[in-house]
Specification:
Blueprint lengths: L5 E7 L3 H5 L2 H10 L5 E8 L5 H6 L8 E6 L4 H11 L4 E5 L10 H4 L1 H4 L4 E5 L9 H17 L11 E5 H7 L4 H4 L12 H11 L4 E5 L15 H21 L11
Parallel strand pairs: 1-2, 1-4, 2-3, 5-7
Antiparallel strand pairs: 4-6, 5-6
Helix pairs in contact: 7-11
């Protein structure tokens, strides 16, 4: 079987409500109508609800769908497992809740024809169903992060990113979240996107940022998210990337963890 053009990797942790809400049906309808071959990889991150069973139930009616079962080690590890299984020329990782809907990939893909290696979605200021306190927090994070690192990139945290598969295979094993991955409990937030984009920029890869639609469509209630703890953890990880850069950690071929 020939390799597809696009591999869509969907990390999955306690996504029962989103799956029951029909996100996969809408995704299949769109992807089947495209002129290029594709595959979808659901990479389950040790869900404690029935997400894995719901995803597997779709496989018989969707030949392009693969479902992976992984230990619970957080989103970066789930994405990495999906990337390793991917066969496409381009790998897109997106959120299961489809806050940025799959049809927005048509905004990203043309950038690869123009020579880009990494293409990321950017949500901008207009975000539907985005609470005011989260909007303020997002703007504060954006300002602080751009002062420290990646000043030319506006939105590092949009969960809608694509890259050439060989680029993903090169960069992901170098992430701290992958090199130090271990089984965990509950929802685990990470700013791995910042380190991923920093490494891509260091390597001189061509990064394009494209405006995409975004609205909070997350129906899942079993993730145990905490906005305050997420914000603190993300800020801590951004500082760690900057500290590692100052200390020359990324100059070491082994890129040992600081």
């Amino acid at each position: 079987m020939s390799a597809p053009y696009l591999s869509v990797v969907l990390p999955c942790y306690n996504e029962s409500e989103n799956l029951r809400g029909g996100v996969l049906v809408a995704m299949q309808r769109f992807l089947d109508a495209q002129p290029w071959d594709y595959e979808v990889i659901i990479s389950d991150d040790g869900s404690r609800d029935d997400s894995l069973d719901l995803a597997r139930a779709q496989v018989k009616s969707w030949p392009q769908l693969t479902v992976l079962s992984n230990p619970h080690r957080g989103k970066p590890s789930a994405v990495w497992a999906g990337i390793q299984a991917a066969r496409g020329e381009i790998v897109l990782f997106a959120d299961m809740d489809q806050s940025t809907p799959i049809h927005q990939v048509t905004r990203l893909l043309p950038k690869f024809s123009g020579g880009s290696d990494v293409v990321i979605g950017s949500r901008g200021h207009t975000r539907t169903n985005f609470a005011f306190y989260r909007r303020l927090g997002s703007m504060a994070f954006l300002t602080a992060r751009r002062l420290l690192i990646l000043p030319r990139i506006r939105d590092t945290q949009c969960g809608f990113k694509a890259m050439r598969r060989e680029v993903a295979l090169e960069l992901f094993p170098r992430l701290a979240a992958i090199r130090t991955a271990s089984e965990t409990r509950g929802w685990k937030v990470t700013a791995f996107d910042v380190e991923l984009l920093y490494l891509a920029e260091r390597e001189g890869l061509r990064i394009a940022e494209v405006a995409v639609e975004w609205a909070d469509r997350d129906l899942a209630r079993g993730k145990g998210k905490s906005y305050l703890s997420e914000s603190w953890e993300m800020a801590r990880q951004v500082f760690r990337v900057k500290l590692n850069a100052w200390r020359g950690v990324y100059d070491d071929p082994a890129e040992r963890e600081a």
